[in-house]
Input
Amino acid sequence: MNKNYNELPNGYLESIDRGIRAVRGFQGGLTRGNLTREESLEALAYELLHADAVVIGAGAGLSTAAGYTYSGSRFDHYFYDFKERFGLQDMYSAGFFPYPKEEIRWAFWARNIYINRYLGPPGSAYQDLLQLVQDKDHFVITTNVDHCFQRAGFDKKRLFYTQGDYGLFQNVDPSVGQTFDNEDWVIQALQAQGFVQQPDGTWDVPTDGSLRMELPTNLIPVSPIDGGPVKMNLRADETFVEDAGWHRASAAYADFLKKHQGQRVVYLEIGVGMNTPVIIKYPFWAFTQENEHAVYACLNYQEAFCPEQIERRSICISGDSAEAIRALVRLEKEQDL
Output
């Protein structure tokens, strides 16, 4: 395998650098714009219809809008026993809990991976988004690790999952430098806990609610490469493995941005918060500032804003992103008539 990744453009680092430099130069504050929600939706539908290209930047808010909630009924249904025994309330914090045994920790992760990677979200936000951009030259950069874009039908060559993938394991030792699929292991681990396959092929809690929250020791996953211990391929620290697929996607992102420099581009940010703004938000602000023909659009439940310097070419839409995407699909059809 060719690991000379220095020969490839690194869209990840290049875009982050451009974003940070741009933000440092911004003067003034942030604004939410002065258009109503209806006016903003109409304006964005028009820009999408006439764009040369669309760059989608998606954060956790998009998956939440699609129904991927980490607490509430989903957590209570699949992790009722973890809640009862350890007092856990949501999947995110449960991922950091110090379980007394590795067999219990991996039982949790098998369920977590399955419902957030292989089961699919209950809502249609991703399918609606594909319908909105499928006839446009588009590319997706996302910090999400749930693979929803590809499951919804997006071309994997147009996707860049910057922070990893719930469907991949990596060696704890990052020097191995490879990742590997975990779906077969996940299904075995579900079966070992008592999950039952449904007529539609999905796996669910048995009707009597009886589950085992501990895996057999021989089901603790190990690396097929060297038999060493593994962990999720998620960017949590410097041990995150950027494998060959990651570098190809990063290069594709850089190439797409370069291809459309100076063109009429919509940088469509959806559900991106302020936890990691340097990956999507700041670069999108920078790209818009650099290109007088570009438009920055932000769909966010509560944090739809932009710098004052690019307000004239920005569209900020607060509220439910799934509802906004559905409205945009409808409006684009009407404007295309």
Notes: Residues 45 and 73 are 34 Å apart (CA to CA).
